[in-house]
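INFO  loader      accepted 1 record
INFO  loader      residues=668
INFO  predictor   begin
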Amino acid sequence: MSGRSSTKLEPEQAWTVLTESPLKGLAFAYEAGRILAWDEGSQLYLLNAQGETLCMSRAPQQIVAGAVSAEGSLIALVGEGGDGSLVLLNADFEIEVERPAPFEATFLAIDPHGRFVAVGSRGGAVSFLNRYGGPAGRLETIQPVAHLAFVPDRPFLVGAAAFGMLAGVELNDARGPGRLDPEIAWQDRLLSNVGRLAVSGDGSMVLASCFTHGIQRFDLRGRNEGSYHLGGTVSHAVPDFPGRTIAAATLEGEIAIMNSAGNVRWRDRLARPPIALEIDPLGRYVIYGHSTGEIVRLDLFGAGPGSGKGRTGSAAGDGGRRAGGGTTAPRTATGSVRRPDWTTRAVSSEEQAETAVMAITEDPPCVAMFTSPHRLELFSATGEKLGRGPEVTGVGRILRTAPGWLAAATDRSIALMDLRRSTQRRVDVSLVELTHLVIRPDSFGLATVQERDRVGRLTPSGRWIWKQELRSPVEDLAIGPEGFAALTTNEGELLIFDPAGESSVGARFDPADPPLLIEAPDASQSGVVWISLCRRSQTLSGHELRGRVVWTRNLAWEGWSLSRSGPFAFAAAADGRVQAFDRTGTVAAEGAASGTANEAFTIDERNVPLRIIRKGVHLICMTLDGRVRWRAVGEETLGPFTAGTAGVAALFGQSLAWFATGKEPAQR
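INFO  predictor   done
INFO  writer      dumping tokens
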């Protein structure tokens, strides 16, 4: 414990680094003093013990697991999915080996010297590879191994199943160079779930973090030597190299430092539970990470040499509270975390927040929020309250926008606002079960569908231009140029309506797969006026004014939604895969699965396609290829959100937050 003049614990945060996207995992090369981290955007980070970014790179796949050798020379990553790959990197993130990963790979472990990699899978087998990617051995157990730890000073492994099994494994020399002959030395029942497995340098202390059963301690022969209980649900427990100091964290957000006898020397509560925890081999500091993206170094004996103190220091989500007093701002690896440009109290109850409907208008840019009981409020892009819309009656909430206009509707009434002239009125028309509404008051008027089978066109004042009853329910509705409108029906027809309301069948599709429909982006500059998406057949089609198919594109997945923003049409799958098409059907950008269908699509000031997603406490704005522009972390529950060319609006608890397009993220 050289370099320390006191044995009294005075923990103080030395630095905090923020990742670009929500943090997904962290590994510690304890001999080299290097920290490997990866986030949900597949961004890789290599930091030194002072919190300085040494290297950054982006993985081609979502990362399931990662590991780094103790001396930092070898890094291993496993990609997500059936076609996931196992990638071995050097300390500069240069690819040394890339090969298919074992099916359903779940974890990685690397021996301290970087000679062998162990890859576990749900099937129960652990595959060993040498540092050059060649097969080096195989271990099969009755229960799938979920956690594996190499003992640093001997050829021995300790493994545990997620529940019910703990095992010791001898690593014997096999015939041939670079190969191992793993053999189970002992196996014992473990009557609890295991969230983390860690060992001391000589293996004399094996710690299994067993949640409500505390920290179970074993020796290298598998004998249970007792347990440590912190009074919470322990998810992480790691010893230093000699086994004198233990760092532990709970799902309740507590972090604690104990000695080997189990005496708690210090504990504190964080704003959020850590998802990763590591300790310096000499017990001088701990590294922990939060899902919100903060990676924190906590010096246990006050600020030590090379700690980076004075440059950073903020606990995850706790407003900069430091263990030991004082506040400073966190550093960011990419500058992606930002505050809202403004917030304002917008709703008065959780029910209103959960059921609110939001929209962003253009020319002028405004945020509209429609809540129960039919309360419509408008806010300018600077956060100024512009007033309320006229009272509407009925069931449901529909918001539709057009440049300079906003319509708010229920199943029985429509309120129309002229935003340029600051006027508003109820459309004087009798409606029964309004199901579809599209507006373009300056040129077309309003297109409506009632009871799913009665379509009509009316003026902003409420005069019907034409009405028609259909033989099949409407799937989607769109307005085109020159007074034309189009809709798709449940019988698979694309119907085109001329300015007088005369209809014709423009195209026919499979009745079992009625298509979605939007107006084509930049329709006035191209012969393509409408774009349809047949979801099951995975077909995107461009249509001219009268409905004739001009081009067809096949998707590699089943579509879930079809929308447009600026010059692009966005086709998205239920798992978040997305492609942006221009009016000619050319793919301008595409994105991998995000794991959610709760997304919004827009463009930035340079017409770059963007996606906005909500993941837990995060609101994330990124390009389709996964590069994060910014993200915000909500201290309250994140509610509905919407995006437009002017910015992004979201509910944080009962407050409306606004993020303008084109602004640089500001540190929290």
